User: What shape does this take?
Amino acid sequence: MKPIRSSRRALALASMAAVGALTLTACNDDAGASDTPTTPPATTAPAGQTAAPSTAAITPAATTPAAPSGGASDTGAAPAPAGSAPAAGTTLKLGEAATIPFSSGSTKGTIALAVTSIEKGDPADLADLKLGDKAKGLVPYYIHYKITNAGSTDLSYTSVNHMKGLLADGTEAQELTVIGSFAKCKSASLPKGFTNGQSSTSCAVAMSPEASKIAGAEYWGEPYTLGKGLNWK
Assistant: This one.
């Protein structure tokens, strides 16, 4: 009887190992092939080790049109009360900051956010990301933005993302999510010691068809939603 139990136990352990191997393979495949990934936190390699190669995936644009490029009066949104966040649909000029509430997990604070520039890239910039036909006919644009801590909460290591590109007709552009480092458009968590008055910059990649262009940007993080956020042109 003992040999039978040992045999069953060995089979069970082998089955568990096989399941674990399949799970790891699926995760690796998803990381390299998914078209609709969630935005991952920035990662760095431990000291003495080489960082893993960057990978990327293009997220299709939502079918719901983004907010028109006009100001709050164009969208029918009521003006924001004095001292509160700008109303959804408000359009600001490049470089103009909006002071808004910010939350990341249990951390809540206030930031001043401004899109500072929208830079047209070159399709050749994406060569190392190995996107293949997924990027055919698309041009990358780099949305550079500045974050300033305008509150009393230390926002160290939180991330300000939810920044999307808007095409010339006002609709949402496709988004490129890069896992790892991308020199043309660096995005990282806010640094240590990010207290009141501290500023940092970040970048988001938007993809435009060759026949169009990225004409604006939208921030749709809380308290806003996609298509009803803050716009910059």
